[in-house]
Design goal:
about 290 residues, alpha/beta, Rossmann fold, six-stranded parallel β-sheet, three-stranded parallel β-sheet, 10 helices
Length: about 290
């Protein structure tokens, strides 16, 4: 069994981008820029945005965070996004979700210029993904594909079972891996809460992608020997023995399932670090398109 080290792969991607940005500087060119818009004071969102800013600084990418009050009007937020749509310094715009209830996530996502949609959530980006056009891929699914490629895990013709159908992970990773393209061309099954018995599907998986948001949901008896397991879940479990009073676990019971897997991602340190790395990669791609 091989543990897939997302931290290591993400560090390699950042290092590669850093070299490209330093070359731009040597050539006297502008460098890519990313603006993050954070509404309210959600601690998880704040931590995530700080991580993105730190990663940008590490590779010499321009970064800015707009911290807005949770009572900002939808109109004011949309106007701010429009301002950054026309700002040539910032090639990527990221609006951190979730948003307060009085603001429409759909309207916010649709207001971001598709050429600056580095999260890959705009309907135009999603449509291009589905029909197989080049586009910005959502960061977590793109990171999953990157991990499979970096570890030389065959995808073509393999049965990929995705547990979960969210717009952020389940649907896009299914569409990415079924495309008739290199590093894809898999047979994909999506299963979710409507399935009477998810294990009926999960036992068939050559590659199992768990993105259901339930701690330790996938058990040893739900997978076959030699399965490749990609665990996207990030769940907090109370643990008085831990300094923080909780510990982070995935959607897969790692201790059990790792005994049957050929490859498996840990939580933390697996898919998580790849999300920010792919965001930086998308921002660099947006910079190239815009320049």
């Amino acid at each position: 069994m091989i543990i897939i080290n997302g931290k290591k792969v993400a560090a390699e991607i950042r290092e590669e981008l850093k070299k490209k940005i330093n070359n731009l500087k040597l050539e006297g060119k502008t460098v890519p820029g990313l603006v993050a818009i954070l509404v309210g004071d959600n601690p998880a969102s704040d931590s995530y945005v700080r991580g993105k800013s730190k990663a940008c600084e590490e590779i010499s990418m321009i970064t800015k965070t707009e911290r807005l009050s949770s009572d900002i009007s939808e109109k004011d937020l949309l106007e701010l996004i429009q301002k950054y749509n026309s700002d040539k310094i910032f090639n990527g715009i990221l609006v951190q979700l979730p948003l307060p209830k009085h603001i429409s996530e759909g309207k916010v996502i649709e207001t971001i210029l598709p050429a600056k949609d580095v999260d890959g959530f705009h309907p135009i980006s999603v449509g291009n993904l589905v029909i197989g056009n080049d586009t910005f891929l959502p960061c977590t699914p793109a990171g999953i594909q990157e991990l499979l490629v970096k570890y030389n895990i065959p995808i073509k013709g393999k049965h990929v079972v995705v547990v979960g159908r969210s717009n952020i992970v389940g649907k896009p990773i299914s569409n990415i891996l079924l495309q008739k393209k290199e590093n894809a061309n898999a047979i994909v099954t999506i299963c979710h809460s409507a399935a009477k018995d998810i294990s009926y599907f999960s036992k068939q998986a050559d590659i199992l992608i768990a993105a259901i948001g339930q701690p330790n949901f996938v058990k040893r008896e739900m997978v076959k020997d030699g399965v490749v397991v990609i665990d996207v879940g990030i769940n907090r479990l109370k643990d008085e023995t831990h300094p923080k009073g909780y510990r982070i676990v995935g959607d897969v019971d790692f201790d059990e399932v790792s005994k049957k897997a050929s490859f498996i991602t840990p939580v933390p340190g697996g898919v998580g670090p790849m999300t920010i790395a792919m965001l930086l990669k998308n921002t660099f791609k947006a910079y190239l398109i815009q320049n």
